[in-house]
Amino acid sequence: MKMGGARNGIILIACMVCFIIAGAAKASFAADLKIGYVDLRVALNESETGKKAKGELESSIKTKQVAIDEKGKAIEKLKADLEKQGSVLSADARKTKEEEIERTMRDYQRFVQDAQADVKKREDKFTESIVKELRDIIAKVGSEENYALILENVEGIILFSRKDLDITDRIIKRYNESKTAPKSETK
Fold it and tell me: In this structure, what are the phi and psi dihedrals at residue 89, rounded to the nearest 5 degrees?
């Protein structure tokens, strides 16, 4: 699954504000300033729910690809039949076959576009839902653990940081636990 980078400007501004605050503050305040970052793309793809969604999408894509391939083969067969019979067909029969091929090709193209749109729609739905839940977990962790700021590491915005500031694995763990918690409570 993909993550959009539309928030890059906001993240950059948040980083600059953070550095200004940290630089202007007293040493004791700067030492107490707790900052972390999360790579939502990694969290999305590595969480159990994300893996499951990715598997479902891949399965759907394979199914659609089989149907696309079958329709493509049918078009190739129609073209091959026209070539084989072309010399013996009347002009009207040839025209009818050519129109059938064109109609089948338009149907094929429409089917491919619809399949791509459906996959994109499903991917967006999964992504939106999971990212919203991940953001809720991030907010809880931020509040519970007294973070001053948690950034999103999008497309390499964070050029350098200490590895201990990356809380992505903790967020994934908390997210996975939140998804399994209701199941264990019902037992």
Answer: -80, 145
Kindly tell me the sign of the dihedral angle through the C-alpha atoms of 125, 128, 134, 137. Answer: negative
Retrieve residue 52's tokens: 């499951």
Helix axes 48-85, 168-185, angle to 10 degrees: 100
**Is the separation of the CB atoms in 36 and 150 below 8 Å?**
yes
Nearest to 37 by CA among 125, 173, 156: 156
Mean pLDDT of all residues in 46-68: 94
User: How many beta carbons lie within 10 A of that of residue 181, not counting itself?
Assistant: 9
CB-hemisphere CA count at 13 Å for 63? 9
Q: Provide the pLDDT for residue 151.
A: 92
Mean pLDDT on 107-120:
96
162: left (phi over 0), alpha (psi -120 to 50) or beta: beta
Residue 179 in tokens: 């998804």
- CA 113 to chain CA mean position, Å: 19
